[in-house]
Amino acid sequence: MAEKKKKTIKTIKINVDKCNGCRACELICSAFHAAPKYSSNNPARSRIRVIREPLSDIYVPVYAGEYAVAECAGRDKYTIDGKEYDECAFCRASCPSRGEFKEPDSGLPLKCDMCEGEEEPLCVKWCTVDALTCEEREEEVEEDVKMEDIEIGMASMVDRYGLQKVMDTVARMSKKA
Ligand code: SF4
Ligand code: SF4
């Protein structure tokens, strides 16, 4: 069973042309996710990685997305404004064929959590040249009603009206549906 709920959706916009490859976003992300928080910073633990090719003036901030069990068979090459980007440059997957988005000690996949608990994603806050900006919008989404919620509701109805009455009502409603 699903009910409509309003949800705030955050989108991070990446302007590749503005990124200068400073890697401040990687530092703050890894520090925020260190245990304890801010006790260390190591870009290898960051959920955002900046693909850097300074000689070609290529800097691509990429967010860690879903875990991929196997590497993909086909790859894409992009040429934008005369710059040729690496086959995996825009890919967000933590995948077996590359080192990005894996926790260095355990090898477990990393995924961006939008800095859960923070008002604004920290990588956005720390990007002083606005290569990263955050937009928020409200969306109506269908959310599954938890079975425990239904059970609690039913139990209180049974307490109040008795089991037989509740069952008769449900039977009547199902005939109408
Ligand atoms: S902080 Fe901004 S400019 Fe610096 S590497 Fe990250 S995205 Fe690029
Ligand atoms: S939004 Fe937060 S968790 Fe995601 S990459 Fe940026 S700093 Fe890391």
List the uncertain runs. Answer: none
Terminal-residue CA separation = 14 Å
Largest sheet, order of strands side by side? Answer: 1-6
- Category from helices, strands and their pairing: alpha+beta
- What integer value in Å does the Rg equal? 24 Å
Shape: elongated
- Element order, helices and strands? EHEEEEHEHH
Largest sheet: 2 strands, antiparallel
What is the number of strand segments?
6
Please state the average pLDDT score: 88
Question: What is the number of independent domains?
Answer: 2
Named once each, the bound ligands are: iron/sulfur cluster
Short summary:
By secondary structure, the protein is α+β, with helices and mostly antiparallel strands. It has helices at residues 24-32, 122-126, 147-161, 163-176, and strands spanning 2-14, 48-53, 58-63, 78-80, 83-85, 132-144.
Summarize the SSE layout with pairings.
Elements lengths: L1 E13 L9 H9 L15 E6 L4 E6 L14 E3 L2 E3 L36 H5 L5 E13 L2 H15 L1 H14 L1
Antiparallel strand pairs: 1-6, 2-3, 4-5
Helix pairs in contact: 3-4
The protein binds iron/sulfur cluster (SF4) (2 copies).
One iron/sulfur cluster (SF4) binds next to helix 1 and strand 3.
Keywords, separated by commas or semicolons:
binds iron/sulfur cluster, 2 domains, alpha+beta, 4 helices, 177 residues, two-stranded antiparallel sheet, two-stranded antiparallel ribbon
